[in-house]
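Quick one:
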Amino acid sequence: MPKPTVLPEWNSDGTNRTTPSAGQQDTGWISGQKPPSSYFNWWMYYVYMWLLWLDGILTADGGMTALANQHITVSGTGRFKHGDMTTSRPPYGFILSGTPTLGDAGLTGICHVATPIDLPAGKRIRQIVYTYNRAGAGTITFTLERKTGDSVGANFVVVNTTTVSAGTGWTTSTAASLDLTILAGWHYHVRIQQTDASNQTNYLEITYDHP
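Output:
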């Protein structure tokens, strides 16, 4: 059912509101008792206050927002879903060929390397931004791939390829719109191929969510 749009505000000005004694609260009404209106106002006021508090953390579509500096614990096999988040990855991990230099500027030289993407299953890659300096020569190719757990090379699946073949100086390039959910049993990485000794690649910025 949809979330109600009306809050049952009651006795918000505090008129004629009395807190029942602890004994009365423990026992509740007894047969034949005629409770004063101030007790009913107390009860209905706090029902309204609790609903008002819940209204502040439950969104109209059933989502939940934690209060400031608090967190949400998901029990059992439930998963924490979230919108876009960003993580960075260095441009190296597995040197496939070449003798690259790794320094403050990241990766430099003619080389072929791969950097793993270590997101857990269920996360979804939305975007990858590559930071590089082509330095006026050759090409830099970024290839997003996934592979099953065995060692058969034919099981590599190319998800996206971005090739830089023009321009100089440090800049960024964004992979085409992605909608890649990380699957259990698959490994994901980005291959980087640089064809000129002056080519440079710095961090990869990955935007992901949990749908």
